Structures are given as C-alpha cells and as structure tokens.
C-alpha cells in the first residue's frame, strides 16, 4: 500500500482520527497558485492510486501524485508532504 493511501485510510478508519480535522492540498490547474484545498471529510473513496471527493456539486478523482500535502485543519501542522515539496510525515508507518 502506498504511503499516502495508508495516511488517508488512517484518517478515515482509525478510531482516534476524525476526517473533519484534516484538509488536503493538491495541484489543480487554474486555481489560485494552481493549488486547491479541500476538507478531508468530503473524500468519498480512497482508491489504490487516487481519491475521489464530492464538494459543493463538484465531483472529481485526484491521483495521489497531485497531492502536495495533508495538514491539520485547525493548527495548519503538516501531517504529510510530497517529497517534491519537501517531504514531511507525522504519522509513522505501522
């Protein structure tokens, strides 16, 4: 399982985590700075190489390679960052 999928699954399935506490930043051409931020709670499916979300009538599938970072929505602390953008990981592998 990929590291990013492992982290997303932890956010959604671990009893100590709550998707409402996280946001996902990904590359989205045409958005300001070509980045889009969504709350993790709007993710409807985690696939082997992507995730799907539904927010405000917008439905999309985002490949993992477009994710820049996952962060705590309240503190802004980065939980995971793409190696292309200065890798950081707070959640450790099991």
UniProtKB/TrEMBL annotation:
It holds the Pfam family MJ1316. Residues 1-81 form the MJ1316 RNA cyclic group end recognition domain. It comes from the Archaea. Belongs to the UPF0248 family. This is UPF0248 protein DRJ20_00725. It comes from Thermoproteota archaeon.
